[in-house]
Fold this protein.
Amino acid sequence: MRERSAYNSAIRQAMRNTVAARAGTVDQNLIPANAQHRYQVRSSDLPLSCPMPGMYLWNSHPKVYLPIEETGEAKCPYCGAQYFLSDEDQA
């Protein structure tokens, strides 16, 4: 019985580590997903996705890529966040 308990404990810890690696941990300096509704982005951030890399993902919607190159702005269909390409990066 103790062997099974140790095995289950090891499995739970491995799952926690996997989730933390994908969703971010408290000690990382990540942006809360969907905390704002307006984001300035640069051409170095392209291709643009919502949520963006560097945002916590555990409480967010599925990743969606947004076309911002032509007009300089895009709106996420899930959360309504608006993204604007900063002026110095537009061609």
Remarks:
- The chain is about 25% helix and 20% strand.
- The longest helix spans residues 2-23.
- The chain has a mean pLDDT of 76.
